[in-house]
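idk why but the lab printer keeps eating my pages so im just putting this in chat instead. protein + uridine-diphosphate-N-acetylglucosamine:
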Amino acid sequence: MSEQVGGIAGVVVLAAGAGTRMKSQTSKLLHQVAGRSMLSYAISAADALTPQNLVVVVGHQREQVEQHLSEIAPHVVTALQENQNGTGDAVRCGLAPLGDLQGEVVVTYGDVPLLTGETLIDLVRAHREHGDAVTLLTAELDDPHGYGRIVRDADGDQVAAIVEQKDCTPEQTEITEINAGIYVFSADVLRAGLASLTTDNAQGELYLTDVVKFARGQGLAVHSMVTADRWQTEGVNDRVQLAAMNREYNRRLIEKAQRAGVTVLDPATTWLHDTVDLGSDVTLLPGTSIEGATSVASGATIGPDTTLIDAEVGEGAKVIRSHVELAVIGAGASVGPFANLRPGTQLAPAVKVGAFVETKNVRVGEGAKLPHHVYAGDATIGARTTIGAGVVFDNNDGFAKQSATVGADAFVGAQSVLVAPVELADGAHVASGSVVTDAVGTGELAVARGKQRNIPGYVEDRRAGEAPIIEGASE
Ligand code: UD1
Ligand code: MG
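predcted complex ->
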């Protein structure tokens, strides 16, 4: 792990491009990897340098990008690039709000989500060690097509130039070292280099990469730092690459979790967000997706086929084939299979929520049971209470939501409806099939349904003239 480096004058993140190949109404930079926007990774990496200035160059879909930045990174300054005249023009725009900045300027892209702050720190360190004017991140690729190629000096030590794919000679296309587009510049050299750029190239653009040739022409040093981790240099241009990036980042998150003591049975079907917190000896079964600000305490088992979003799962709890969002599951609780815990659900320790149970905005006390086919919304349920099969908390009076309270050690028989607002005291019982509209006191049994009566001869009357029904006659 790299230590901090200080003293970076500015980071410029290029994010003005059109992202055409995403074919999206949403800016490419807002598409997500492991639950966070691609742009947020660029900001995190830049923040690792604790720069004095952090500028994001915006252009296409800039309202979306600016809005998003104001939410996730209010410390960022944005600079507008009106027309996308190339990366050199973009950096010019990025430097504009910084005036006569002195020191080191780091340039990165908004669409390279796996680039880490550690790599940027290493790049700055290399820049300082070499006394470079420019230091760039490069990678050796089997298929370098499309990238700018690194042309080295005869002795191979320094970078002489970067040549874009479209400007390459046939020999240069054979070069496998590519430019990642991530650099540390001396601010003075960068400014002078940008001022010298021309559009005299195959794409008619101002190439940031030409600053390298400029620096060497001034007799200044330019070195590259080759990374062995090609993912850190890869951008996302379309949704195929986005999926590949998600897959790789997920692989890294899972490996990290495994090394920290989490059992993941099937990494290929397990998905983690960057923001989740998993305790040791957690077991994740196939088909599990753990998202947002979810924490799972040690010894819990999640899955198979379970989604947790912004949830908190206590020690040793089990959540089987269920969907859980903005809910708290206490230690040792058991949920599912096929439960839907909606926002505001709080299960105390050792609660049992069984099959086809839906809960919303409900607090369930320790050891209470809702084992089968229950809807419980806007309610409080006391400790050790049993809610029978098919019970419905009717929380909607047709106009507004109402709430119900069921005390501790209570029992609600199967297929009952609790019509809120209603209150059941500690130890209250409800006979099955009741429609409960009034309070039930401690130790009382509420029976709120038609009393059963049997009508003798009923069937025979309806079948006059037919053979009488005799036990065992229906073959
Ligand atoms: C650039 C580099 C190339 C490198 C490659 C790595 C140049 C001339 N070439 O090529 O050497 O191998 O990146 O991915 O720099 N952008 C703007 N404004 C612009 C143009 C681009 O903000 O006017 C942003 C884009 O949004 C993107 C980044 O800069 O995030 C790179 O632009 P892109 O057009 O993808 O550059 P490449 O041609 O791939
Ligand atoms: Mg590109």
